[in-house]
Amino acid sequence: NEELNENGKSYLDGVGNVKVKVVDGCSLAAAVVMNNIPQGARQVLVCGRLTKTGYAVVRALCQRGTK
Q1: Can you tell which superkingdom this protein's organism belongs to (predicted)?
Q2: Smaller CB count within 10 Å for the chain: N or C?
């Protein structure tokens, strides 16, 4: 649960200055989905209940300019 561990913030605070990006499973899954959507796609239909992964995909699509 992210609320319990604050997305790994307490771990990073304890380790010090580390140049590593912490990615949770949902962000990684969203990146895999985004890499499988063609760059030239202008529209994408998202169906079903939106989860944290779904929201991450939709956000990335919007940033890319995809409807």
Answers
A1: Eukaryota
A2: N
